[in-house]
Amino acid sequence: MPYNLSGEQIAKVAAALGQLEPGFLPYPIFEQVARLVTLPVVEFIPLRKVGDAVEVLLIQRPADDPFWPGLLHTPGTIIRATDLHRPESDNEQAFNRILHDELKDTEISQPHYVGSLFHKSKRGTEQAQLYWAEVTGEPLVGEFYPIDSLPSGLIDSQITFIRTAALNFRQ
Q1: Which is nearest to 72 in space by CA: 96, 53, 45, 97?
Q2: Is residue 77 within 8 Å of 24, Cβ to Cβ?
Q3: Buried-exposed string 101-126: b where 16+ CB fall within 10 A, e elsewhere
Q4: Which of 145, 141, 119, 148 is nearest to 60 (CA)?
Q5: pLDDT value for 87
Q6: Which tens digits make up the pLDDT trace of 51-67?
Q7: Which residues does residue 9 pair with via DSSP β-bridges, in sequence order?
Q8: 146 to 41, 155, 161: CA distances (angstroms)
Q9: 55 and 48 in contact (C-beta within 8 Å)?
Q10: What is the spatial distance between Cα 13 and Cα 127, in angstroms, rounded to a whole number?
Q11: Minimal CA–CA distance to 86: which of 96, 76, 71, 98?
Q12: Is the pTM of this model over 0.85?
């Protein structure tokens, strides 16, 4: 057996997990699931053009964030098992969470799919679907930074997201 758990312990963990509803998980359970499986993620890279330059809107994570306290990031969300059980299609539920919860309803264009990146983060392994969206109004959260001189204090994995999306945006 590859685990240091008895059959009885495995049965107890499985029984406890069987009592959970699909969707949003209690944080201690989410943290362990994130460590054990590859998480599907949607990442928005909010961009705008200023003259010939491209800027990215970055948001600061809370100081008590367990993985990236106080660091800058692009908005994103985990795709939940319940996201496809709604009348909306594709990633609409995930998009709505990003728009309302992270971007605080900042006006943006329709998201444009860039591609998928399989990567490792502090939280665990993720399969990230990347989208850029052009910020069309004044941002209600975060701050813009030039793509060519990203600030320190940015989550490392986000750098590849931003550069990949910016290249697609420029084309």
Answers
A1: 45
A2: no
A3: ebbeebebeebeebeebeeebebbeb
A4: 141
A5: 56
A6: 999 999 999 999 999 99
A7: none
A8: 24, 16, 14
A9: yes
A10: 26
A11: 96
A12: yes
